[in-house]
Design brief:
The chain is mainly beta. The chain has two helices and eight strands, in the order βββαββββαβ.
Length: 116
């Protein structure tokens, strides 16, 4: 049996851009991706704290240290600049792997930067 488990999270990032005229995805500062153990191209769930929307898309690595959180394509209709979002990744694991796995958490500041 395989279990889908919480793998990594960027908690309470602020949307900096919403680009409807793009193919799709979410662009995320490379520092935040690394801190949350999320890879470029990985499927993520985005939870919008402002309006309750939940959506899934894939990640694009943004400029390191830029603080960028940009919803692209159709996802841009689900968010507005300034919305606070949680970005979550999951991974399939055996029950044995899941018992010892520790997810990675990133807590950006109001500028989507990591302090410390």
């Amino acid at each position: 049996m395989m279990l889908q488990m919480f793998k990594g999270k960027i908690h309470r990032a602020t949307v900096t851009e919403a680009n409807l005229n793009y193919v799709g995805s979410i662009t995320i500062d490379a520092d935040l991706l690394e801190a949350a153990n999320i890879l470029e191209g990985e499927r993520v769930q985005i939870v919008n704290n402002n309006n309750g929307e939940r959506l899934e898309t894939y990640t694009i690595k943004g400029e390191r240290g830029s603080g960028v959180i940009c919803l692209n394509g159709a996802a841009a209709r689900k968010t507005q600049v300034g919305d606070v979002v949680i970005i979550i990744s999951y991974a399939w694991m055996t029950p044995e792997e899941a018992k010892n796995f520790k997810p990675s958490l990133a807590f950006p500041d109001e500028n989507n930067l990591l302090n410390g």
